[in-house]
Every structure is written in structure tokens, then in C-alpha cells.
């Protein structure tokens, strides 16, 4: 095939074949299908809920020399353009429901919370978090949906458009000059000082419950995907890295569902923010310092989530670090359609596809991963064009419809 991805594997780490046994009980205690069912029961009552599509990218499969490429397209999720609505919104709901139960002695119904029946309580609550864009947008959306306030911390490289999209949902924006992890610390400090509820998608010592709720919300995505797969079983799953929470949520569902037949799982990260690759190489959670400059804004994270790391370490076979240019090429190819309807994907959303295509054209990596004509590759397109100006600059096209 024509190879626009030649030489784009910046770094790769093979951690041997993981996740080949049954799903460990130690991991299942925190993430399992029962928690997913609970999350689905809540989320399916929200206005606008509908499963996002699973697309077959047959042209890309043929070009890459594999049997099939399946792409879970999250651009339409709740009108926010990203899977993150499932996690941040669900965590906000859980925190507010807990506060309402503490003050009234009653567990609130979803419909009552949506209708503003507990406005006297929720309007006194402020939620806060740090974000690269999508998580903060989901938390602000959840706050707006359920009637509380939000203050969202963005770091120095978050684009103005992403910050403005969050502000349109009613959030107050605070910009921190450092990196994502600095913004996390700033949000935590502000939350403690002001009595705000911190809704972080990453965990650290002493803070595990809320990130787990975020991950349980993400599990709804995998629940939908398994139903859409039917009798098709993926052989390879390429997942975006970040702090690891998204990957851990998908891993837990795959491992529980397939057991010893779990697909080979590969993590894809930006070359400047490959904290999961570094952690795997070091055998412990490790920090990548610096500003993590990358167009993959949602993956510009230097510190793994402690609650997510055991799932990643236990199941992931391989880690890839790729340059921004690989993502630009993937976004353009999706936009071109290649004989199919165009797919609108953002920079982090296309990262899994970019990692797969980079691996498929690098002979040693392809051989290591066992990619061949029988492979069924599953990708999660985690976002649409959440920064329209960025998408238009990459593709040279004008976006005529919402992401």
C-alpha cells in the first residue's frame, strides 16, 4: 500500500502477551458488568441518549492488509462530540445524588433531578476539574443538566475554541500556565479551599472513588460496542492512552466478556506524552515531565491514573508512541472517505487509527503484533471535530455540519 506513515513509530514497547487468562477478581471488584449496567440504567434516561455507530472501514482494512477495521464513532455523543460525556456527566450525577440523599434521606430519581426538583440543593454545589478539553466539557454539561455550578481549569496549551466551548455550557474557566497535571493540582487545591466537589478523570493517593465512577460511565461505550459486534470478535484493539482511565474501562469490559480469548490490546500515545509506555517499560507508574506539546490534546498527560494502571499493566501487550503527523494523515484519510462516507474525527479521536496504520506499515511492528489478512481490528473514535478550526486546518476542508 502507499505508505504515508513510513518511519512514524517513534517508540514501541512490547510487554509480552497480557490478559490471556480469566478476568482477575481483584480487578473485577471495582470494574465489572454490574457497574456498567448501573451506569447504563442512569445514562439511558438522559435526554439525547442513543448508542453511537460502529462503522466498518473496509477501504482502510484493504489498504492495511487486514480482514476488517471497525470504528466506534463517538462524534454524536450527547451533542458534545466526545465519549467523555459518559464519564464526566455520570460522575457529576453520582455526586449530586449522594449530596441529595445526605440532605433529604431519599435517593433521587433521574427524572426528578433532570426536572430541577432538587434545585435548592444542587444550586449550592460547585463541581470542578482540570481538562484538556473534552472531560471539562462533559463535567460542565453535567453540571448544567443537573442544576449545579462548574469551574473548569484548563492548562496552557488548551486551544481557545475548546475553552470557549466549555464556557458556553455555563462554566467559569480558569487557565493554568502549566501542563495538564499542573492544572489537576490547581483544581484540587481550589476545590479543597472552596468546598467544591472535584470531578477528576485521573486518580491519585486518597482520591479513587470519583475516577472509578468516570470509568464506569465509559463502560457504557463498551457495552454498546459488544452488542454491535454480534458474532464478530476483534483480534486487536488499539486504544488511546492519556492517563489510562478510558483504556482501563474498555479493557475491563473486554477482559470480562472474552476471558482467555481477550483480543490483543495496544496502547497508542503521543511521542511527547507517552506516560503509559514509560510506566510499562519501568514496571511502575512513571511521570513524563514537560509541557507535553501535541495536537492530541486529550492525550497530553504525563502521569498515569493510579486506579487505572493495574488494568493497563495487566492486559496491554504493546505500547506505541507516534508523532502528530501520523494523526494529521489519519484525520485527512477519514475525511476523504476512501470510497465510503467521510468520517469527521478530532486529533485524539483519530489517534487509535493512526497508531494502527503506523503499525500496519512498519514491518517489524506488524510482525510483533501479529497483524495479517485475518485480523479484525477494533478502534474507538473517541471524538469528532471538537476544535473545528484545527480540523479545517488539517484537512483543508470546511466543516459543513456539526461534529
Count of the separate structural domains = 2
What is the ordering of alpha helices and beta strands?
Answer: EHHEHEHHHEHEHEHEHEHEHHEHHHEH
At CATH level 3, the topology of the largest domain is Rossmann fold
Strand order of the largest sheet: 1-10-9-8-11-3-2
- Spatial shape: globular
N/C terminus separation: 30 Å
- Characterize the main sheet: 7 strands, mixed
- Residue runs with pLDDT of under 50 for 5 or more positions: none
Radius of gyration from the CA trace? 20 Å
Give an account of the 3D structure.
It is a single chain. By secondary structure, this protein is of the alpha/beta class. It has two domains: 11-82 and 217-395, Rossmann fold, CATH 3.40.50; 84-209, Rossmann fold (3-Layer(aba) Sandwich), CATH 3.40.50.1100. Helices cover 44% and strands 14% of the residues. The chain is built from 17 helices and eleven strands. The strands form two sheets. It has a seven-stranded mixed sheet with strand order 1-10-9-8-11-3-2, with helices on both faces. Helix 7 links the parallel strand 4 (126-131) and strand 5 (149-154).
Question: What layout of secondary structure does this protein have?
Answer:
Layout: E1 11-14, H1 25-28, H2 33-43, E2 54-56, H3 58-64, E3 68-73, H4 84-104, H5 110-114, H6 119-122, E4 126-131, H7 134-146, E5 149-154, H8 160-167, E6 172-175, H9 180-194, E7 197-198, H10 209-229, E8 236-240, H11 245-258, E9 264-270, H12 275-282, H13 309-315, E10 316-322, H14 324-336, H15 351-361, H16 363-369, E11 376-381, H17 388-395
Parallel strand pairs: 3-11, 4-5, 4-7, 5-6, 8-9, 8-11, 9-10
Antiparallel strand pairs: 1-10, 2-3
